[in-house]
Structure formats: C-alpha cells, structure tokens
Write a structure and sequence with these properties.
heterodimer, A: 740 residues, Immunoglobulin-like, Maltoporin, Chain A, 6-stranded mixed sheet, 2% helix, B: 116 residues, Alpha-Beta Plaits, 21% strand, HMA_dom_sf (chain B), Cation transporter (chain B), signal (chain B), HMA_dom (chain B)
C-alpha cells in the first residue's frame, strides 16, 4: 500500500515541475483546390504520445520539448504530413486529401506500448516493437510485458491459457481480429494460440465498455489483433524458434504485389511442435501436452486509391494435443486399465471479407465487415468424451456521416447479423442449438473542440432465444490543460454463455460436470474512469495513468467447485457478482534509451457461490509489474527484463476431499513472482534473440491433485493458479526483407 | 538457473563495455551532403548505414540533406561509406565537418517550413 501512497504523491507534485515552449499554427485541408481550416486533425510529436487536435478554425497549440523534432499531422481522409520543426514560428500547414479508406492507422515507434491521448476510449496500443520484447509465439505470450492483461493456465494438462482483463475471464472481453469478433465458442480454450505472434502487426487493448459498432459483447473490454497487411513494406519474413524443452516453431509470411499498387496478396504459414515429454515435477503427468499445430492464411487487398477498398482472406488450421500421464500413448484406448490420457483435436477453417467506400467529399463512408468459421473438436479427457461442431457467421454494415463540415457532429449507424450453430455431445447428452441475432445500432460523436469528445451509442438486437434487448454505451474524453486527460465510460454488455464449449477443460477432474441450462445470456454493467498525465521531467516524457473499473453482473455463469463433493456445478448466478479493478502505471526513461514501466493493480472480484458471497477463486488479489527495456545506440542490441508480482488468492475446494484434517493453506495460495528476460541482437536483415521465461523456475506445487490415482475420486487437474511449466530457455531467429 | 543469470550479466556488461570502449578507440567522422527527399528515405538510409562495418553513431537528416557517420577508423573508410550511400540510390558528396556544421545550422534557421 505504501507504493500507492508514493504514486499519489508523484501525481500531485508533477504539475509544478514541467515547463516547455509552445508552438502554434493553423492546419488547412485542400479540397477542389481551395483550402479551408481543418478541425480535429491529430497533431503529435513523432516518437512520443504528446498530441493535440486542431480546433474548429484549424488552430492548434502544442508544447515543444527538447527532444521533439518532427511534428506529424494526421486526419482520416487526408495524407499524413510530417514537418521538421526547428524554431517556434507560427505554422501554416495544408493537408492533401487521401482517398484511401482510413483504417486503424498504426504508427510505428520505438516505444512498444503507448496510451493514446486522443482516443475517447481508454486504449493501450501494443505495436511491433513491443511484440519483439517477448519470445514469439502467439497472442497469449504477447501480454507478458503488459500491465493490464493477465495470462494464466486454465488447467494443468491441456496447455490451454486464458487471459483476464480487470480480473475477469477472457470470455468477458471481446476478442477481435482485424476489428471482427473471433476466437469464441469452440475456439475459446485454445484460441489465443491460434494467433501467431509474428503474423501480428499490432494489438489494441481497451478496457470497459466498447463502441456499439462492435456488438453487444465486451463486458470487461476489447482486444483487437491486427495482422500484417499485404500492401505493407515487408516482402518476406521468416522466424524460427526453439525452446530447450523441445518446443519448435516456424513462422513465415510474404507479400506479393500482384497488380501495380492496387492488388496485393499475403501468404502466412505457422507450424509448431512439441514432441518431447516433460515432467519436471515427476508427478507422472506431462507439464505440457505433446502438440502439433499447422496453420496457413492467405489474404488479398484491393485498393483503387479513389475511395474503394476490399480485403478478403481464408485460414486453415489443424491442431492436435496429447496430454495426461507421461506413459500414455496415442495408440492406447481411454480405459481405466490404461494410463490417464487426454487428446484434443481441433480443425478449423475461417474466412473474412471486408470492403468500404469513401465518398470524394470525405464526409461520408460505407463499410462492410464479415467473417465466418467452421470449427470441429474431437476430444477425450480420461473417460470423458467431448465432441463438438460449430458454424458461425458475422456480418456488419456501417454508414458514417459527418453532420457538418467541421465534423463537430458525426453519426455511425448500421446493422449486423450473427449466426451461430452448435452441435455438442458430452457423456450421454447431445446438445444442438442455433443462435440468430439481427441487430441495429447508431452512435453519435460530439467533438466541439480538440479538448473534448463525447460519444454515445445504442443498439437493439433481436435474439431468437433471448428476445429483444437494448445495449446503451457512453464515453467521454476531456483534456484538462496540457498535461491531464480524463476519460469516463459506462455501458451495458451481454453475451451468450456457451456452458460446455467454454468450460470443457473442467473435464480434467474426477467430478463430472452438472449443468442446468445448455445456454443462457449473461448481462453486466461496466463503469470506468481513467486519468492519464503527461509531463516532461528532466527532458524526458513521464506518463502516469490511474484508472478504476467496476463491473456489475445481473446474470452470469458461475462455476461452482466447492459446494458439491460429487459434481462441478455450472449454474446461473443466484445473488451478486462484481469486479473492482484499480490500476496505476508509470512510464519513464530514467536513463537514455532505458524505458521503464512500473504498474500495480488491485483486483476485487466476488460472486455468490452456494448462497455465500465469496472471492472469485484462482484469481490473484493484485498484480505488480516492472519492465525494463534497454537498447544500445542505433538499436543494435536490445535487453528486456520483466518481473511480475502476483498476489495470493482463494483455492476452491470441497471440504470433504481433504479428509478429517484440513491442512494449512488448503483454501489459499500465496503470492508468487515470475521473471522473464530476453536479449535481441539486430543485424541488417535478421536478428537473433535468446531468453528465458520463468527465470526463477517458480511452479505451482502439485497442480494435479490425486495424480497417483487419476481414475480415483481425488483426481483434479483444474485447480491451477500459478505456472505449471518451469524455467524455459529459448532462442530464435528472425529474417526480414523489405520492399524499397 | 545460475548459469542463465551469469550469461545474462555477461551479455549486459559486454554491450555496455563495447560502447564505452568504442568511444576511446581511434574513431573517425565522415560527413556527406546527399539527395534525400522524404522522411522515409531518412529512415531507410539510417537502417541501412547503421549496419555498415564499424559504424558507432549516425545522424541522417533529410531536411538539411546531410549525413554524419562516426565509425572506427580501422574497420571502415570514408570511400566505402560513400559507396554504401550510393548503393541505396542517394548522392554522397563528401564535405568537411565544418561545412556540415554550417549547413545543419543554416537548415535549422530556415528549416521549419520544409515539407515533404
């Protein structure tokens, strides 16, 4: 707690330290050879997140620090412009129109993660520089250096990892790929490993209610991953990775310019293999399953540079996991006379199509986004068979219109459609269901000047199983002076709890699942408030962030492992469930080229289980994170070091299973620390990296309860709160060839 | 475990020492006037030149169209550096350090209106 006090002190003192020079000017847009003042243009210093926006008359004022050299002007519909600023004379800047549809523009900077001062929603942007800090390999591992997202093991046998945002499971965050919902339903458990790290260009993490444009989900927040674009500079990229524990990976992608600068295609390949059996704690169970994954992705982009753009792609994936006791072999039948085994096979095909047109006046735009997936799972956990098939389609049309020339008022409206068909079988139950959800939405944005944005949206969805429901959302952002940005948000979210497909890892337990509803709707309100401050301290930027989010569930799926000796009960919430999350971050460069991040978060997550309001089990009460990133001059070497302090929490256990004497610490796990480090050496076309995950080799003791008798009543591999795998040393190689 | 931290430490010390020593050894400076016309050229050239042999520091500026390279005299020559710049398609007209300073200062004086 003392560290929080210290942080607050810093927050209070800082406004008096800073001070710098002010640069002023006017920014114009060029249209039909006439220039007119352009409001709302984003103006920022390259390589920093110090930015402002122009006001109604196109005027702007921005502070110039010692290190600020290049000023960037960017605005949807106009070409980005960069100016060298050497003195503080007033500026007149004219932007040329750009007919390409404005996608989420990713600005490449050396700073890996930054918090936007302009976006009305509290968003962390993770770019390729940050992605280089972690080993490789997939979306789950990309959050190792991130203070907001926690990654933990779901269980001790399948190797599945889950994320938590605001202390809530990943299912409460809307996962998107290229701004379209993805990795849900049957892909929930292993979906994070379906996004190879080297394919990604950037990730955006936003907390709290999201825009209604993306649907009625996103209760805790939203995570969007952008893949590399086929018209990017990269011609060829190759990555190989080897871990000392026997993990091998290969990733490659290449871009081909098929027709001038108009049509391009990208081909992506991913292969990973774990064929060595590791059982470091000698409990007879593999620490990670043997696994193999193959994935190919082909995408196309057409852009006529006159306002029309279209993109399409298709992905094929096959994955196999074989876990359980190390003596189990693929050829063995799942029988009590054989060792305990787990086998999960996933096959998946998915595709997407999106297109958009921007009218020449740049005030009107139309976009269509759609994706589909077909996913098949065949699995057994010991004697439990679980097989499922899922077909899903998502489509959304958005019409954008600025209501006045200055774009003070703008409106986004449209409709969407979701089709989701499940066919599952577990034990002797066959469960089939189909969801069909047409919906309409509208979002209004009011931006009277560069210091203030207010955004409010509403949507109505017409669900074939749950009827009509309304989703209201609201966001605002206000710059209080030059150093402080405040944000607020409130909104309702809904999601369909897929009781089995999202929880099938619970089958790695002696207690069978018992559930009352195959499917029902979860509902929650989320409120958030954030305060971001930017200062110049001894010539370098200091960024401070403080935020609070509260989630209140009206309806929720509760996993109850502690009121019944015979079953794990999956039932709708009967009582209260909420989450409070408070987080502080500090980012600074204490020494030239040494980036430092200090973060601390408190999680208070509670829910009613068996009539009692209890802390959510297997959730750390706090998390602290320290990350150092050092690069040598000209960035030929890069060093990364991360340490995570995870708080203790509650273990859900049925009292009977401990026998008469309940040992100390039976219901509680202690705080633990995890360290990661990596060194990268850059060469002209390639770079090489060496690192270690979980440096101190911290492991949860006995992650598999009753391991000596896996078909007996004590067996449970799902009470996992800490790392299952020990220290992992790895090395890898990246090769990049760019178009000139 | 222990070996890893030792390895890490050595690497870290190595990198710092490398940099510190480089300052002392016979360093040379080469200055060029070039022909870049956009910020992109600046970054392309920076990315390329920094991996030329012996290069320890680098200032590429497209506004004044100048390049300053600090390098180890026993590892590279002015001539080869000029060749590297030309290989990327830009002019490399050798200038003296004094001339370089003059151009950069002048550019800073009038520079802010420069656009791309």
């Amino acid at each position: 707690m003392r560290s929080i006090g210290f942080l607050i002190l810093i927050l209070l003192i800082l406004p008096f330290i800073a001070g710098a020079q002010i640069l002023e000017g006017v920014v114009y847009g060029k249209e039909k050879n006439e220039k007119h003042p352009l409001p709302g243009v984003n103006i920022y210093w390259q390589g920093t997140n110090k930015g402002v926006a122009s006001d109604n008359e196109g005027n702007f004022k921005i502070k110039k620090g010692n290190g600020d050299h290049v000023l960037v002007f960017s605005f949807v519909g106009y070409q980005q412009k960069e100016l060298h600023i050497n003195e503080l004379a007033s500026l007149d800047v004219v932007l040329e129109p750009n007919l390409e549809l404005g996608e989420v523009k990713v600005v490449h900077k050396n700073r890996g993660t930054y918090l936007s001062a302009i976006d009305p929603i509290q968003t962390e942007r993770i770019n390729s520089a940050e992605l280089h800090k972690a080993a490789c390999c997939n979306l789950a591992e990309s959050f190792e250096t991130n203070p907001s997202v926690d990654v933990s093991y779901s269980d001790a046998v399948t190797g599945a990892k889950q994320i938590r945002l605001l202390g809530l499971e990943g299912t409460y965050s809307l996962l998107q790929i290229e701004n379209m919902p993805n990795l849900r339903g049957l892909a929930t458990n292993f979906g994070l490993t379906y996004v190879p790290g080297p394919w990604m260009e950037s990730i955006q993490v936003s907390k709290g209610a999201a825009s209604v444009l993306n649907g009625y989900e996103s209760i805790a927040g939203q995570i969007n991953a952008e893949y590399k674009k086929p018209d990017g500079d990269e011609k060829l990229f190759l990555n190989t990775f080897a871990g000392a524990s026997g993990r091998l990976e290969f990733n490659g992608n290449g871009n081909i310019r098929v027709y001038k600068d108009k049509l391009s295609t990208g081909i992506f390949v991913h292969a990973s293999d774990q064929s060595r059996r590791n059982d470091e704690n000698s409990d007879g169970f593999l620490d990670e399953p043997l696994s193999r994954q193959l994935q190919v992705f082909n995408r196309w982009k057409f852009n006529n540079h006159k306002g029309y753009m279209a993109q399409a792609g298709i992905t094929l994936l096959t994955e196999d996991r074989l876990g359980g006791q190390s003596s189990f072999r693929r050829t063995m039948q799942p029988l009590p006379t054989n060792p305990y085994g787990i086998n999960i096979e996933n096959n998946r095909i998915e595709g997407f199509f999106k297109t958009g047109y921007v009218w020449p006046n740049n005030r009107t735009a139309l976009a269509w986004l759609s994706n589909f997936s077909r996913h098949e799972t065949n699995s057994f956990y010991g004697l439990n068979d679980y097989d499922a098939k899922e077909t899903r389609f998502y489509g959304s049309a958005v019409f954008t219109r600025d209501l006045n020339v200055a774009a003070t008022h703008s409106l986004n409206s449209g409709f969407s459609f979701i089709y989701n068909d499940f066919s599952e079988s577990l034990y002797t139950n066959v469960i089939d269901r189909t969801e069909q959800v047409p919906g309409i939405f509208s979002e209004y944005t009011f931006k009277p000047n560069h210091n203030f944005t207010f955004m409010t949206g509403i949507r109505a969805d017409f669900h074939n199983l749950f009827g009509t429901f309304i989703t209201p959302r609201m966001h605002f952002r206000y710059n209080m002076g030059e150093h402080i940005t405040i944000r607020g948000s409130a909104g309702k979210g809904y999601r369909t709890a897929n009781v089995l497909s999202e929880n099938n890892y619970l089958l790695a337990s002696a207690r069978p699942l018992q559930w009352s509803d195959d499917v029902f709707q979860e509902k929650a309100w989320n409120y958030g408030f954030a305060l971001v401050q930017y200062y110049t301290l001894w010539g370098r930027e200091l960024q401070l962030n403080a935020e609070y989010f509260r989630t209140d569930f009206q309806s929720k799926l509760v996993v109850d492992r502690e009121t019944s000796a015979s079953h794990i009960i999956l039932a709708p919430l009967d009582g209260k469930s909420f989450s409070n999350s408070i987080q502080f971050d500090l980012r600074y460069q204490p020494v030239k080229r040494l980036d430092m991040l200090l973060a601390y978060r408190l999680n208070d997550v509670q829910q009613t289980i068996g009539g009692q309001l209890l802390e959510k089990p297997l959730t750390s009460r706090y998390k602290g994170l320290i990350n150092f990133n050092y690069t040598t001059n000209l960035k030929k070497w890069m060093f990364d070091y991360t340490i995570q302090f995870n708080g203790g929490g509650r273990i859900p256990r049925y009292p009977g299973e401990g026998g008469e004497q309940i040992p100390e610490g039976f219901y509680e796990f202690s705080p633990f620390t995890v360290m990661n480090a990596q060194v990268t050496k850059y060469f002209r076309y390639w770079n090489i990296y060496v690192g270690a995950e979980n440096l101190t080799d911290f492991r949860q003791k006995n992650p598999v309860a009753g391991a000596d008798n896996p078909f007996g009543p004590q067996f449970d591999a799902t009470n996992v709160w800490g790392p299952v795998k020990g220290q992992r040393i790895y090395a890898g190689l990246r090769f990049t060839l760019n178009y000139q | 475990m222990k070996q890893v931290s030792i390895l890490f430490f050595i690497l870290l010390v190595g990198a710092f020492a490398n940099e510190a020593l480089a300052q002392k050894k016979d360093m040379a400076v080469a200055c060029f006037k070039s022909s870049m016309d956009c910020a992109n050229c600046e970054s392309t050239l920076t990315e390329y030149l920094k991996f030329e042999k012996g290069v320890k520091d680098l200032k590429v500026d497209h506004a004044s169209n100048t390049i300053l390279i600090e390098y180890k005299a026993n590892k590279n020559t002015e001539k080869d550096l000029a060749k590297a710049i030309e290989k990327k398609g830009y002019k490399a007209e050798k200038i003296s350090k004094a001339k370089y300073d003059e151009i950069v200062t002048a550019s800073k004086k009038q520079g802010q209106g420069h656009s791309h």
